[in-house]
Inverse folding.
């Protein structure tokens, strides 16, 4: 099919999203799905956060969704969840978000998330049953030390003898947990025995306790016990992850996304016990985690991801995968790991990319349904490049570091394209994130 014919067909399929769009059409496409995955082409685009927030609110209010699960660490997000559910000691959303200290802090400490957290707390004010208050949870596994400490803190109150056993098990790794990559390096290259069995024993002990409690109480597990079990799960999977880091990117990636899928499943089961019905969860994560990996070149190389695992484990009508794309604009990102947040200009998308194709449609912001392979995208015999900007953005190496080939019609059930996007505003701005937008000539200055 000639490019112009493709563009014309996409223009007919595209559903423009005006300011204040109520997403009625999108909610019709989502239907009765109980797991809705909302992506992002970058970790630092304001519109992606705003749109996901508005969609999530509609899902909560109109379709009875129970929780938002995000690409963030479990302990940090749990503090936010306590706040929105009217627990804990934090008095403001900013205080509740102060647990997010690890790079990239700005992913969750930003103005859009503050607004969402305040909305969730206000919404929960009108929920009569505490068991049905909306939660905010983390799916990631980077919090090795914090999660181990949380397990011990819980057991100190619930079972001091069990707390001592946990301390002895975690002592194997705790002295290196502040820099877990050092632990992974030392164990991989034989400088230290790994702690796999110790962290696994701790998880199994808490899981047995939870199972016994559920059996004795008719199927329910107290929140605090579930949270501790999940922290033990994080510690166990993080230990595997940091060892896998030195075996290859695919191995560590697969550990991480498998953990996300495992956490999502455990969370849905726990919420379902409280509400006595199948839990509904909306997930926020990068497109690279949520777009079915089997439709990408990374999948061909042996990677899997959360979107793939969700589709494999649940019925098609129970899941919905929504990707987001942009052509150009500004973005918040760092130049290197642990670097400061910078306000950067996004290079216009490349010829031969999905983003350039959607740019040529000529609509500033639109929804493109692709579920059921009825879209013109499903009829194409070639895959397009797709761009992925994470917490790091290097425009000078963009083709190599930020593009990959994929079949979007197999990756997602729908796409939202924002042609010109703007950078997410961090609560704490570095000198490289000025008050004003970057000039049009950035970064060349010409």
């Amino acid at each position: 099919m000639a490019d112009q014919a493709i563009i014309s067909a996409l223009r007919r399929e595209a559903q423009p999203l005006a300011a204040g769009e109520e997403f009625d059409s999108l909610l019709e496409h989502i239907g009765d799905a109980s797991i809705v995955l909302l992506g992002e082409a970058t970790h630092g685009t304001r519109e992606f956060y705003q749109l996901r927030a508005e969609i999530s609110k509609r899902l909560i209010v109109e379709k009875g969704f129970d929780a938002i699960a995000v690409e963030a660490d479990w302990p940090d997000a749990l503090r936010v969840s306590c706040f929105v559910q009217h627990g804990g000691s934090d008095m403001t959303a900013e205080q509740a978000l102060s647990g997010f200290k690890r790079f990239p802090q700005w992913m969750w400490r930003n103005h859009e998330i503050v607004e969402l957290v305040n909305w969730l707390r206000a919404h929960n004010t009108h929920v009569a049953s505490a068991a049905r208050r909306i939660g905010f949870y983390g799916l990631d596994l980077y919090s090795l030390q914090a999660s181990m400490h949380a397990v011990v803190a819980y057991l100190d109150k619930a079972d001091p003898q069990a707390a001592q056993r946990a301390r002895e098990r975690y002592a194997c790794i705790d002295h290196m947990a502040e820099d877990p990559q050092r632990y992974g390096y030392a164990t991989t290259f034989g400088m230290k025995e790994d702690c796999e069995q110790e962290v696994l024993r701790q998880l199994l002990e808490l899981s047995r306790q939870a199972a016994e409690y559920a059996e004795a109480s008719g199927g329910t597990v107290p929140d605090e016990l579930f949270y501790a079990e999940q922290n033990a799960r994080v510690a166990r999977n993080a230990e595997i992850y940091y060892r896998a880091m030195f075996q290859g990117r695919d191995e560590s990636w697969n550990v991480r996304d498998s953990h996300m899928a495992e956490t999502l499943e455990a969370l849905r089961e726990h919420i379902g016990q409280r509400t006595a019905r199948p839990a509904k969860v909306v997930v926020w994560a990068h497109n690279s985690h949520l777009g079915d990996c089997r439709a990408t070149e990374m999948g061909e190389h042996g990677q899997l991801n959360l979107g793939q695992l969700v589709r494999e484990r649940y019925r098609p009508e129970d899941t919905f995968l929504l990707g987001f794309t942009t052509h150009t604009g500004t973005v918040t990102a760092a130049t290197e790991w642990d670097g400061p947040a910078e306000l950067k200009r996004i290079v216009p998308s490349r010829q031969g990319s999905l983003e350039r194709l959607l740019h040529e449609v000529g609509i500033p912001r639109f929804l493109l349904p692709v579920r059921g392979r009825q879209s013109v995208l499903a009829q194409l015999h070639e895959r397009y490049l797709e761009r992925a900007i994470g917490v790091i953005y290097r425009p000078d190496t963009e083709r190599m570091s930020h593009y990959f080939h994929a079949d979007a019609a197999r990756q997602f059930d729908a796409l939202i394209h924002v042609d010109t996007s703007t950078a997410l505003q961090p609560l704490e701005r570095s000198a490289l994130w000025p008050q004003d937008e970057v000039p049009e000539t950035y970064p060349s200055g010409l």
Summary: The CA atoms of residues 59 and 65 lie 6 Å apart. The first strand starts at residue 15 and ends at 16. Residues 438-446 have pLDDT under 50 and may be disordered.
